[in-house]
Amino acid sequence: MNSRTSKITVTRPFLPPLKEFEPFLEKIWKNKWVTNKGPFHQEFEEALREYLGVPYISLFSNGTLALLTALQALRISGEVITTPYSFVATTHALYWNGIKPIFVDIEPRTLTLDPRRIEAAITPQTTAILGVHVYGNSCLTDEIQKIADIYGLKVIYDAAHAFGVTQNGRSILNFGDLSVLSFHGTKVFNTFEGGAIVSHDLVTKQRIDFLKNFGFADEVTVVGPGINGKMNEFQAAMGLLQLKYIDTLIQKRKMISEYYKQGLHHIKGLHFLDEPDNVQYNYSYFPIFINHNLFGFSRDQVYEKLKEKNIWGRRYFYPLISEFPTYRGLPSSQKENLKVAHQASESVICLPLFPDLTQKEMRRVVRAVREMAGHGITAVSGVKELNKIIANE
Ligand SMILES: *Cc1c(COP(=O)(O)O)cnc(C)c1O
Fold first, then answer.
1. Could you read off the pLDDT of 310-339 as tens digits, one per residue?
2. Per CATH, the architecture of 18-243 is what?
3. Given a cut of 90, is residue 375 above it in pLDDT?
4. Best residue among 184, 189, 193, 317 to mutate for probing ligand 1, ranked by most atoms within 8 Å of CB
5. Is the distance from the beta carbon of residue 69 to the nearest atom of ligand 1 less than 6 Å?
6. Which CATH superfamily, name and number, covers 246-391?
7. Nearest in space to 130 (alpha carbons), one of 111, 148, 155, 152
């Protein structure tokens, strides 16, 4: 296939040059230490803590086990208030802990939990709020914390999309009681698979570390019903290497996002999310929202037409979690309760966005969308400028 028709996927993991990974492998072979707090695990944990600017962090084999463990660590039970507009693992983690998810609608600017709707969903069984910094957009953390303080609730953030995002210069991973990261291959920062929990005091970090290792505090003491959530040496080595590249990778993502913004602005019936001034964003996703009447095609038509051109966007997050068989019977899953979430879910497409996306590929994406809207590409001078910038990179 030539470059006009080659497949463009929504994401692609960044892998550093294989040569740079080999010395790590040689060390692992020499040490014969493959997991259980090996030297790379310890080094990566400290390097990551420093990079992210957080007080304590515990590494995990994936984000879902980290979510499960975060809920266990704080002994969350009963009901938890959460968002339906996320990847399904967010709610599954509640379900696997025997916790009833209570869905609350999102607010339209950030697509995160709407704090104005939380209080009405609180019952005597409510123990926590589980928000998601979706697409790397910070939840309205001040408002959420205020409610949590009044009602004595814990706050956990699924920060799987929020690696490296800062607000007023401070990591948004510092909000709430715990924040959970994912380093899955599809995320901004990857260790093949991987995850972490950010905590704020040593006692909590220790409890998390015990729980991810079957509950072992020492050779003969098991403090609770733990699980196996440990990150291995191969993942940690990959993490150390990725840290060398992450700033450049985020910079590239930013350029691609700017290109899309310039190429797609002022198209009737198409909009994207604002980027607040006080936020240093990670450009993890580029969601566009299609208004069928104004744009001329429905979201699903746009999705199919892009696919015909071998451009594979993804409808993140469609269907809503509340629509899956496990959850659709819950009273809080009623469509009238989740109007904003339904609207976002029915109009969103995430465009291809990853550091290795080429200039040609970006242009193909912008052109395909503009053509659907009846616009040519050459009319946009901003795009020409950006083409130049990217060509000179
Ligand atoms: C990817 C993701 C997860 C799950 O992380 P894994 O590392 O794949 O287990 C959880 N929540 C959200 C919002 C995600 O995007």
1. 999 999 999 999 999 999 999 999 999 999
2. 3-Layer(aba) Sandwich (3.40)
3. no
4. 184
5. no
6. Aspartate Aminotransferase, domain 1 (3.90.1150.10)
7. 155
